[in-house]
Each structure stands twice: as structure tokens, then as C-alpha cells.
Amino acid sequence: MSAKGGRRAGPPPIAILTDFGNRDHYVGVMKGVIASIAPEAPVIDLAHGVPPQSVSAGALMLKQSWRFFPPRTIFVAVVDPGVGTARLPVAVETRAGARFVGPDNGVLWLAVEEAKPRIAVELREPRYRLAHVSATFHGRDVFAPAAAHLWRGVKVAAMGPRLRGGLTALELPAPRARTREVRGEVIYVDSFGNLVTNIGRDALRRFAARFHGMPLSVRMDSGAPMEIRNAYGDVRKSASLATFGSFELLEIAVRDGNAACRFAAAPGAVVTVRPLKRNSHG
After folding, report:
1. H or E segment to which residue 138 belongs
2. CA gap 9, 70 in Å, rounded
3. 282 falls in which pLDDT band (50, 70, 90)?
4. DSSP 117
5. What fold is seen in the domain 14-159?
């Protein structure tokens, strides 16, 4: 027990996020490497269904996840279309305590910025990678060993030289506010077909304040306008709706259905928010 009477914290986990899916052996091999170096390390599958090569989707998932893990968790994010090229493999320690390992291609950026970077290094030290490094599988040969050695107590600073200029930023598209509309776009589609946009709650609250409490309507490129609801269950089955989900971003959904299929929508699809026009005759 701790001095304050609570439970003593256990060892932090290693959490793995990839776009590898579950069909192939890639994730299992990464876990095998970790188990060979740090057999007592708890390993959590954060997600392996990131859309292939979608750095932005991986970055959004990581940003939405890291703060719900114990302090000192090591996050290994492998969404790496540039594997084997000049992009750098990195490790980051943050002021919040969380540590991140992955490619410096933007996938770590959103989470690290929230957690406040303290030190970021290039993973160059040979002792903390496998003897042979494939040009196509840094998850196995570079990132998994680095995470395991970090878990065993190796300091981030010992793994290689400090990065000059910081991590590569990920620039997500920003919504555009006009006089009577906010125009955004879909930036992520989850496995339920919900369309997550780049329109945040605060931005929409500021826009709505111009119209003194008038309800807002949300429209895809095609389809009827939708009001913003609190929950999926606030509409009848198969009805479309807009709501703020766990991302705290406006999303388009279909109750018990798939909005991506209904609207034939993918990342980049335009979403427009305007004041709702009421029928004057009620």
C-alpha cells in the first residue's frame, strides 16, 4: 500500500497502435520482441485497425487515448508509409510522464503536443534495436525493442541524439467560419461508419452565439439537413443525426446504421453547419 493508503501503482503498460490489422503476423511478432526483452511488461492492444497508411487517423486515435492510461505508459505507434526512407524513428518523453515511440511522420504529434514534450531523440543507438533492421518492418526491428528497453529502465536520452527542431507536425484541415455557415470536412471514419469532422464544440458554440440560440442544421454534400442531438438514441432507428461524440468533434451518424455508406462519404467530404430555417407556419 502507498503512504496515502491507496493501492501501489503497478508497472506501466506498453500500448501498441498500428495499421497492421489482425490478418497477418506483424502485431504478434512485435509482441514477441517485447516479450523477449521485457517479459514482465504488460502489453495492451490500443488498436490495429487504423486505415492503412492513414497517419492522420492514427494520430487522432492516439490523441484521444493517451490520457486514459497510467502515468509512464509507453505508446508505440506504427502507422508508417515512409518506413525505410529518410523519416526518422524517434522516442519522446513528455512532461505528463507518457512516453511515445514511432516514426517522426506526424502520427505522434497531436498526442505529444497535449502531453508537452520534454525530450525527443532519434532512435539510433544499436544496443536498443535488433541486430538486423529491415527496410520494411521498423515496428519489429526498431520500435518494439526501443519500447521494451524503455520499460526496463533505459532513459530516452540514452537511445540516440536529440532531435533538432522538434517533431514533425501534423497539420489537420481547419474548419472555415463564414457569416452564416461553418464549413468543415470529415477527417476520420470509425468502424461503425460514423463520420468525424474537424468542427469542434467550442468553435460551433462561438458560431451559434451569433444567432442568439437559434438551432443549427448540419448537412453533408447530399442529404437533408440534420439537427444536432445529444445521443444516437435521440432519433428513430435508421435516422441520420449530428452529434458530438467522444472526440468532442461534430460527427454524422445513422442510428443503428452506417453514415459512411448512406452518404457515400470518406475523409475529405464536406460538412456544412448553418442556422436552421424553421417553417413560419410551424
Report:
1. helix 138-138
2. 9
3. very low
4. E
5. Rossmann fold (3.40.50)
The span from the CA of 121 to the CA of 92, in Å, is 7
> Which of 34, 46, 41 is closest to 13 using CA atoms?
41
Q: Report the C-alpha gap between 212 and 47 in whole angstroms.
A: 42
DSSP 48-79: S-SPTT-HHHHHHHHHHHGGGSPTT-EEEEE-
| Cell (9 digits) for 170 | 501534423
CB atoms within 10 A of CB 264: 10
Rounded to whole angstroms, how far apart are CA atoms 62 and 50?
A: 10
Q: Which amino acid is at 195?
A: L
How large a percentage of the chain has pLDDT more than 70?
94
Mean pLDDT over residues 184-210, rounded?
Answer: 92
* CA terminus-to-terminus distance, the chain: 64
Grid cell listed for 5: 493508503
C-alpha grid cell, residue 37: 526483452
Show me where the domains of the chain are located.
14-159, 176-275
Superfamily of domain 176-275 in CATH is Bacterial fluorinating enzyme like (2.40.30.90)
Residue carrying the nine cell digits 472555415: 176
Cα angle at 61 between 257 and 150, to 5 degrees? 150
